[in-house]
Amino acid sequence: MSAPLKTASPGDSAPTGPAVTKNRTGPGDERGEGVVLNVFSHGFLALWALMIVLPLLWLILSAFKTDAQIGGSAFGWPENWSLDVFSRAWDKGIGDYFLNTVIVLVFSVPLTMLFGSMAAYVLARYQFWGNRLLYFFFVAGAMFPVFLALVPLFFMVKRLDMLNSYQGLILVYVAYSLPFTVFFMHAFFRTLPTAVFEAAILDGASHTRTFFQVMLPMAKPGLISVGIFNTLGQWNQYILPTVLMQPQSGDDPERYVLTQGLVQLQQQQGYASDLPVLFAGVTIAMVPMLVVYLSFQRQVQAGLTSATLK
Length: 310
What we know:
Layout: H1 27-63, H2 67-71, H3 84-125, H4 131-143, H5 150-159, H6 166-189, H7 194-202, H8 207-218, H9 220-235, H10 239-244, H11 258-269, H12 275-295, H13 297-307
Helix pairs in contact: 1-12, 3-6, 3-9, 3-11, 3-12, 4-6, 6-9, 7-8, 9-13, 11-12
C-alpha cells in the first residue's frame, strides 16, 4: 500500500531557502545613462570642433593684421579689414600657382574618377579568374608609401620627357589616386541592386551603356564622396609636385602648383618677413576646398554611409 499523502496545514510554514534578489533597472535608470552618454558625446564633438575652427579663425584673422598685431594677441580683431593684402599675395605669384593647380585638377580628378569607377564596376559586378587578386593589387597600392616610389617615378616621367609638365603631373596624380578610388567605389557598387543591372542586360543594353547610363547615375553619391576626397588630396599634395615640377633649365618656365608656391612665397620673403601676405596666400589656398566640402557635405555623408552597408 502506498503511504497517504500529507497535506499542508494552515499553520505550516513554507520551506525557506536562500533568498534570490533580481537587479532590475527601471526606465529612469536607462534614460539617465542615455543622458550622460549624450552629454559626453556632444561635449567631445564640441571640443573637437573648437580645435578645428580656432586655427582656421586665427589664420583668417592674421591675414588682415600687421606683423606687430600678429605678434600680439592671437585672436584679437584686426584694426583694418582691407583686402589689399590678398591682392598683394595674388600679384606675388599665388595667382599663377592657383591657376596651375586648377589646370592639373581639371584633368586629373575626372580621369581618376572615370578609370577608377570603371575598374571598380568590373571587379564588383563580373566574376572572372583573378578577380580578387586584381582587387587586392589595387588595395595594396593604397598602402604603398609614396616616398618609396619617388625615385622610380622621377626616372619614368623623365624618360617620357614630361618633367615640369602638366601632363606628367596629371598622369602621376591619376595613378596615385586610383587605388583609393577603386577600393571605395568597389564597396559602393556592391551595395547597388543587381536587379537593375540584370534588367538592363535583358533589355539589350550593352555593358558600356549599362555602366554609363544605368549604374553610374545610381552611384552618384559615391562618386561625389570619392571625388571630394581626391580633390582634397591632390589639391594639398606637396611631395609629388616638388619632385616632378622643377624647372630643368634656365629657359624652362616655373609651373609650380599652389603648395609649392606657398613655400616659394615664404622663401622669397627672407629676413624681411611679410606675414600678412603669407597668411593671405594660405587663406586663398584653403577657402576653395572649404567651400567645396561644405557645398557637398550631405552627398559626402550619404556616399560614406552607403559604402559601409556591405
